[in-house]
Amino acid sequence: MSTPDADGLLAEQLLRLTRRLHRSQKRQLESADIAITPAQSRLLRTVAHYDRPPRMADLAERLEVVPRAVTSLVDGLEAGGCVRRVPDPANRRVTRIELTDTGRAALRTLRDARRAAAEDVLAPLTTEQRKVLGELLSTLVDGSGPRCRE
Fold this sequence. Notes:
Radius of gyration: 19 Å
Shape: elongated
Order of helices and strands: HHHHEEHH
Largest sheet: 2 strands, antiparallel
Number of helices: 6
């Protein structure tokens, strides 16, 4: 059983690790000369997960933000040539968001920066430690850890 102090320390360590990972990723992106914000990066990854170009409302729902926030993100990415607005063939009043070749290239660069940042952060760990950490993180992400029985 954990204690409140131990849980608080763990929470602080997780936050510090997240900040370190973000700083490392930011350095990687700066060296690749790509100017995409974390929110824009998330939007690009979300657009890429759809089988066909999503509607703005789909993106807002998936990202759990208000539609106006998606509009601002799309505006910035469109100005950078990463996405384009395209009309829905079935309903001309609906606009869909499509990745461009530039957007796909930016996604590859972002993926490479995330991997390099992770490698930077994980460098002190042995292969066995990385395996254990991966298993622990999977448990936390999936929420499938052991359950208490009453």
